Every structure is written in C-alpha cells, then in structure tokens.
Amino acid sequence: MANAYTPGLKVTEQATVRKTRRLPILGEVLVQPGQEVRPDDVVARASLPGNPQTVNLAALLGVGEPQDVVHYLLKKPGDPVKKGEVIARTSGLFGLFKKEVTSPIDGTIEMVSTVTGQAVLREPPIPVEVTAYIKGKVVDVIPREGAIIETTGAFIQGIFGVGGERRGIIDVAVSSPDDILDAPAIGPQHKGKVVVGGSLMTGAAIKKAAQVGASALVAGGIIDTDLVEFLGHDIGVAITGHEDVPLTLMITEGFGRIRMAQRTFDLFRQLAGEECSINGATQIRAGVMRPEVIVPGHKPSGLVAQQNLQEGLAPGMPVRIIREPYFGLLAEVVDLPPELQVIETEAKVRILHARLQDGRVVTIPRANVEIIES
C-alpha cells in the first residue's frame, strides 16, 4: 500500500516564504519587482467610496414640486461641501422667511433628483492600504491589486490563533516548554514584543500583556473560557484574524495545558531578540490557514532538529488531532488498517488507530491528524 502523507505544522529555521498582498478593490500598486521592502512599507493603496447621506431638499425647503429644488441649489452635483455649509436656500417672501438646508457632513454632492426632490451627499473616500507585512523582496506585481513578497528565514506555524498581523521582538518569558505563562512573568519590558510561554497562557497573562502593550503571546495551549473572555464572544467556524483585540494570540499545540513541542520551543529560544512578523489568522476547514511567526533573514544554527514530513504516517509516529471530538489532543499512531472504513458521516475513508495521552485508543480518519515532532 502507498504511504499516506499527512501534512504537519511547519517549524523550521530556514524556509522561503511568499506572501500575496492584495487590495480588496482595484487601486494603485506602489512597488516594483525586485524592490526591497520593510514590513510597514505600503505596497498598494486604494480608496473605498464614502458612506452616502440622503437629504430631502423638497421637504426641508417647503417646495411644492420636487423638480423645483434645482432652482434653489447653491451647490451643484460634484461640488465639495463642509458640514454646516448651506447647500440650498429659498428666496422667501420680500426677502423674508427664507428657508435653507445645510450639509450634515463633510463630503461631496453626488446627485440631486428632480423626481424625489432629494440630494445624495457622499462622505470622503476611505483610504485602504496594504503593507508588505514581512521584510523581503517584491518578486511579482499584480496590476492594480497588489504584490507578492518573498523572504527567507525562520518559519513557525501554530494550530490556532486570533488577532491580525503584528510585529515585535521575540522574548521567551519561561524556562521550559512545560512552564505556564502567567501574569507575573510579563512586565513593562514586554511592550511591543512577542512573548513566548510554554504549556499554557493564562487569562491573567493575556490581560497583563494587553495592559503593558505587548504585540502578541505564544504558548502551547489556552483554556477555552480564557479565550472567550478575551474576545468577548465565542469562536465560530469562520476564519479568525479580524478580531478587534489589543494583541495577537498564537497556540502551537491545542486547547488546555499542553506542553509546547520541544523543537518549537528550542527554535523560539534561538530566535529570542530577533524581530518577527506574526499573524493569528486561522482557518481549519476548506483552505487551511495557520497562525504563523516569520523571522526574515534568520540564519540556521543547526541546533534545532528539522522535520521530515515526506516519510508519511507510520506506527509509533506522534500526531496531533485537528478535528472534533479530539481536536488539539496529541496521540501516537498504533496501526494503519489498509481497508476503507465507514465513519459516522457514512463516508468510506482510510482510518488509523491512535493512542491518546490518557491511554485510550481511538479510531480517527487519517485526514483528521497531522504529523508532529516527538
């Protein structure tokens, strides 16, 4: 039987990483192929149309026929206006009892309807900028959309995260991958830094990190109730990374207190003091996306064992389960039955038997695990 290849989290001192930086709408690309960029450099820019505001000129002016409003306009479509500026005024009776309408916003008069007697004002455009996110080189440009940035350096993926793109100096705040990252380990010296713990980040540590202005926290695990308290809501099935939170969180192993993989912890110690880019965006279903830490320009030391995923699954191999009901748990492959088996969804799939850390042997679809380093 052919090997069953199951991808794992990438944890490596040396990787070539490409990031596509794309605008949500068409705009202007500001970089050229071959150009060196920094994380904060803007590579593309666009403008989203401002919000519209409707003003009922006919009613406010007391005009009988909607088409007559054009005779009282002081501003025409396309003209800029300031909030409080008069845009229409009646002549009144013998110069008295004039009525006037002022603009409710700063913006532009977009149109005036002679059918409804209403004017549509548009707020100023909303600028949208896309930065490089990583230090690297522009290898390609997507006309009017963005660019592809490439860098070489250390690359560490996690299993789950929240919060968007941030940068900071890596600071390992614990002594071993078993240690809990708690509030006393975090202080003012961690402002703007990516703080790395061991087996767990506590809710108190998250609050303290937010208070001192840390960029991100990384640890092996997190308690789900602490995560919900931090976010203010439960996590759904959609992609994460767009939460309005003061710092980014990245979990390398799963939910609960789980010892960070030794290889991952050793690499973080090697990277201490170096600047990284971190993103908590996660999508576990179709189109898998992992939270990540990227350290451009890091030179491999040879002290961190590298992982070979091409061997495929084999008995005795450590794996992490990435689907419910055992999501985030570590296990060891017991055997790999070659026959297809029917699972609860009535689909026929290849399965494996794995021994959880509590000694239970469970049956899992092979697609629901990923290889990890022991």
Structural class: mainly beta
Please tally the β strands and state the result: 29
How many H/I helices? 4
| Mean pLDDT level | 88
Residues in β-strands, percent: 35-45%
Taking pLDDT < 50 over at least 5 consecutive residues as the criterion, the unreliable ranges are: 1-6, 305-310
The shape is elongated
Major pleated sheet:
11 strands, mixed
CATH class of the largest domain: Alpha Beta
CATH topology of the largest domain: Glucose Oxidase, domain 1
User: Portion of residues in helices?
Assistant: under 10%
What is the number of domains?
3
What does this structure look like?
The chain has 3 domains: about 10-15 and about 150-295, Glucose Oxidase, domain 1, CATH 3.50.30; about 50-120, OB fold (Dihydrolipoamide Acetyltransferase, E2P); about 320-370, SH3 type barrels (Roll), CATH 2.30.30. Helix content is about 10%, strand content about 40%. The strands form 7 sheets. Strands 1, 3, 12, 13, 14, 15, 17, 19, 20, 21 and 22 form an 11-stranded mixed sheet that branches. A 5-stranded antiparallel sheet has the order 28-27-24-23-29, with no helix packed on it. The chain has a 4-stranded antiparallel sheet with strand order 5-10-9-6. The chain has about 375 residues and is mainly β. It has 4 helices and 29 strands. The longest helix has 10 residues, at about 205-210. The two termini are about 25 Å apart.
State the main characteristics:
single chain; 374 residues; mainly beta; Glucose Oxidase, domain 1; OB fold (Dihydrolipoamide Acetyltransferase, E2P); SH3 type barrels; eleven-stranded mixed β-sheet; five-stranded antiparallel β-sheet; 4 helices; 29 strands; 9% helix; 39% strand; disordered N terminus
